[in-house]
Design goal:
single chain, five-stranded mixed sheet, 18% strand, 11 helices, Nucleotidyltransferase, domain 5, alpha/beta, Arc Repressor Mutant, subunit A, 36% helix
Length: 413
């Protein structure tokens, strides 16, 4: 249950609480909203009038629940706001346009191979302009652009230049002012995020995690990442890279002094290297669909790759169970669903023997709902999430002013 507050500086927070309640549970009446949020009927009436005037909600239908006039049900206006998501990694670039309800309205995907920063930014700009033109939308209804990049990231704050530092994953991309470049060329606000964290936000905002207070998201891209949601909020950690599983060091030796193949966990999940190896052996392996076909046909290379990866991932997943105690662990990203399900089946067989007998509860293991578009959908949700999601920091008074990100829609107070 999302609960509002009557604190002096909570107007923006309550706006968001009511909007989020309608988004999650609507269509619903004002009486239902008041009951769900524990706000007064007058507060709910005042705020829903503002939301209605701003075009963020609309009347859905009328519901007769007893004597007297029927209740008016309210729902989100899915065409009130749009957002763009850019998911970039060394092997692909995906750009999507989503509406307020998270429906993908336009999508473009292109395979790439370690493009330079300028090449990648030029392609991003072209693809964004293409989908906006195709959708026939005005720029003023697009709330922003989210960009997902492989972690770990170092993002500078307090300046127009936000830089990424990940020389191992993206050679030549040190200190690239990604946000400044895109904002100057596209004239829209840009938010930069680790793509695994963004996928977790997307699962919380639009997917099966929207009713969960805490979960962990295991993200498979060109390597391995993770995102943590605690009490309905993304937990980013001190440097913004919490949940970054890929750089967890593997033990030095296996049985009989045989060394591990990789010195860090993410090395076992490098999909581009797997595809390159398969192509060198004469298999068609240029796409995620090709990998799915090879897995379905029990290709020995793919099966061994998945078995090795799963075996090495299990100890860290168990550690997350004990340390974080999440309600669920989601598995998603750019692996075919058939491979993800096979991984989960193997885990379900192996893990019971590795848990202590006294552990009677365990998290649900679930395939993430967004599929291979998880990161793109996640970063697309960032401008809308930042503008509309209820976040506790909004309750803090700052220099006599409460942050109010509803100003774009005309909700000033």
């Amino acid at each position: 249950m999302l609960v509002g507050t009557n604190l002096q500086y909570a107007n923006s927070y309550n706006n968001r609480i009511i909007l989020e309640t309608i988004r999650l549970h609507g269509p619903m009446s004002r009486v239902g909203i008041a009951r769900q949020t524990q706000l007064t009927a007058q507060t709910v009436t005042n705020i829903t009038k503002k939301l209605f005037k701003a075009g963020l909600i609309v009347e859905d239908s009328r519901q007769q629940t007893g004597p007297g006039a029927p209740s008016i049900l309210l729902r989100i206006n899915e065409n009130a706001a749009y957002s763009i998501g850019i998911d970039f990694d060394k092997d692909h670039l995906t750009v999507i346009l989503v509406n307020f309800n998270g429906k993908i309205c336009q999508k473009r995907t292109q395979d790439v191979h370690f493009p330079s920063p300028q090449e990648a930014i030029d392609l991003m700009v072209k693809m964004v302009n293409d989908i906006i033109e195709k959708a026939g939308l005005d720029y003023d209804i697009i709330w922003g652009i989210g960009v997902g990049l492989p972690g770990p990231l170092a993002i500078s704050e307090g300046s127009a230049s936000k830089n990424i530092v990940n020389p191992e994953a993206l050679p030549g991309w040190e200190n690239v002012p990604m946000v400044r470049e895109l904002e100057s060329r596209l004239h829209l606000p840009v938010i930069l995020e680790n793509n695994a964290s963004a996928a977790a936000i997307g699962e919380h905002w639009y997917g099966d995690g929207k009713m969960m207070k805490s979960f962990f998201y295991v993200y498979f891209g060109a390597g391995l990442g993770g995102g943590i949601v605690i009490n309905g909020q993304l937990y980013s950690g001190y440097t913004g890279n919490a949940g970054e599983l890929g750089y967890y060091p593997t033990p030095v030796f296996l049985e009989n002094d045989k060394k591990y193949e990789h010195d860090h966990l993410g090395g076992y999940f490098n999909v581009p290297l797997l595809q390159e190896k398969l192509r060198g052996m004469g298999y068609e392996a240029s796409s995620i669909a090709d990998l799915a076909d090879l897995h379905m046909n029990r290709n020995e290379v793919v099966i061994k790759w998945l078995d090795d990866a799963t075996r090495n991932l299990i100890p860290l997943i168990l550690a997350m169970e004990y340390m974080f105690d999440p309600e669920a662990i989601f598995f998603g990203g750019r692996l075919p669903e058939t491979m993800l399900r096979s991984m989960l089946d193997s885990m379900q067989k192996i893990m019971p023997g590795q848990r202590i007998a006294r552990k009677t509860e365990r998290p649900k293991y679930k395939i993430a709902s967004a599929g291979i578009d998880a990161a793109a959908l996640g970063v697309a949700s960032l401008p809308l999430y930042t503008s509309f999601a209820p976040q506790p920091k909004l309750l803090m008074k700052q220099s006599r002013h409460i942050m109010d990100t509803f100003s774009k829609s005309g909700m000033n107070g």
